[in-house]
Amino acid sequence: MKREEEGLKSLGNQGTQYNFDYRPDVLETFTNKHPENDYWVKFNIPEFTSLCPITGQPDFATIYISYIPDINMVESKSLKLYMFSFRNHGDYHEDCVNIIMKDLIKLMDPRYIEVWGKFTPRGGISIDPYCNYGRPNTKYEKLAEQRFIFHDMYPEKIGSR
């Protein structure tokens, strides 16, 4: 199937415009070809930036998005453009990860999704907010409960982050 048939506008478009303000409307989906399977899709976004809503200083993070798709999946270039749109967006770390998760739930209606932000320290403190969602009244709701309880039991080696 050609991308035009899927309705994708960003993928392969050489005239890509980068928006510097929060733009959830740039997100696009395509159809999951394996809806009978449970499987993970994981995005690692190591160059996420947003702005502190008080000082206007930039905040840098790696954002991890993991989800189990149902019918719709997020198209990766549109996700890149969406993440880029946070560049001049002023919000707290905790708000950014929750906004990202809620926008992706609204877009895809996944079976399960989690978003984890690993922000670089400012003032000697790093903030690593985590949020997740499992479709209510399904095994994915139970998965969300378990992953929420145990999500940080084995934190990664921090190093020079």
* Physical arrangement of strands within the biggest beta sheet: 2-3-5-6
Oligomer: single chain
Largest sheet: 4 strands, antiparallel
As residue ranges, the low-confidence spans are: none
Compute the gyration radius: what is it? 16 Å
**Percentage of β-strand residues:** 25-35%
The total of beta strands comes to 6
* Secondary-structure content class: alpha+beta
Global outline = flat
Provide the residue-averaged pLDDT. Answer: 89
Helix % is: 25-40%
Cα distance spanning the termini: 42 Å
The succession of helices and strands, N to C, reads HEEEEHHEEH
Helix count equals 4
Descriptive notes:
Helix content is 25%, strand content 25%. It is of the alpha+beta class. A hairpin with a 6-residue loop joins strand 2 and strand 3 (58-68). It is flat, with a radius of gyration of 16 Å.
List the helices and strands and how they pair.
Elements: H1 3-6, E1 29-31, E2 41-51, E3 58-68, E4 72-74, H2 76-84, H3 93-108, E5 112-119, E6 130-134, H4 139-150
Antiparallel strand pairs: 1-4, 2-3, 3-5, 5-6
Q: What are the salient characteristics of this protein?
A:
161 residues, alpha+beta, 25% helix, flat, single chain
